[in-house]
Specification:
single chain; about 25% helix; about 15% strand; alpha+beta; three-stranded antiparallel beta sheet
Length: about 240
């Protein structure tokens, strides 16, 4: 599923403020194959996922477009009731602790999944800020227009702007196993759009994919057997 999203982002056009309503349009001059890829990616981006698709067990949205829709599909979402991101962490024994069990306790990791699936036989709630979290950061979702074009910028061009006050961040790309220039995320902690989309699928929608095959553990606890979405067809999703 992540592949469809990066295809969408690859060809989205960044236009001027006079034509903001057209930001979701494809670039002009695409081949028929490229246009078909764009439309497939756009459909995937806007699709409302279900439990049969792998939604949950905890999640923040049921589609990419739910949190990226203003001024058009792929944008931001200023409504904090819809798309507020909550990230948590702490400093523990002098070290940064993402609360994912890698340093100390496991409380489900840095990103809160604030909604949960509602399945017969499953008693599950969305995550809340745990008492161990001494750092709490709340953010709104950001626009994604032109993200694929950012990936196409040569690394030499990015490094040539270091003198403007920024500094490069090199990160491991799990897909290639290589250390690559970070380009995406709040801290340039993601190297490629493919990784960026796969990360969003598992952390925002709770949908695993080849790049991110492991489910999030709700509040750091094992997933209850009754919450296995493949075992029931009587399912809904709750806010």
């Amino acid at each position: 599923m992540a592949a469809g999203v990066w295809i969408l982002l690859l060809v989205q056009e960044q236009t001027n403020s006079q034509s903001r309503e057209n930001l979701t349009n494809p670039l002009p001059g695409l081949t028929s194959v490229q246009l078909a890829d764009f439309k497939a990616g756009l459909d995937e981006f806007a699709e409302v996922e279900t439990l049969e698709d792998g939604l949950g067990p905890v999640f923040n949205g049921k589609s990419c477009a739910e949190c990226h829709a203003v001024p058009s599909t792929g944008g931001s979402e200023p409504n904090v009731g819809v798309a507020r991101e909550t990230r948590i962490s702490r400093i523990f024994n002098g070290h940064f602790d993402p609360l994912d069990g890698s340093v100390s306790v496991d409380r489900g990791g840095q990103l809160l999944q604030q909604r949960a699936i509602n399945v017969q036989g499953c008693n599950l709630n969305g995550e809340v800020v745990p008492p161990e979290a001494t750092i709490v950061s709340r953010r709104n979702s950001q626009p994604l227009f032109g993200a694929g074009l950012m990936e196409a910028v040569p690394e030499s061009t990015v490094l040539g702007n270091v003198g403007n006050g920024g500094r490069p961040n090199y990160v491991l790309n799990p897909d290639s196993g290589a250390t690559e220039l970070g380009r995406f995320g709040w801290k340039a902690q993601v190297a490629t759009v493919h990784q960026f989309a796969g990360d969003a699928y598992v952390n925002e929608l709770g949908i695993t994919n080849p790049s991110f095959p492991l489910e999030n553990s709700p509040q750091g606890q094992p997933i209850q057997r009754g919450c296995d979405r493949s075992l029931t067809s009587r399912t809904t999703a709750q806010a």
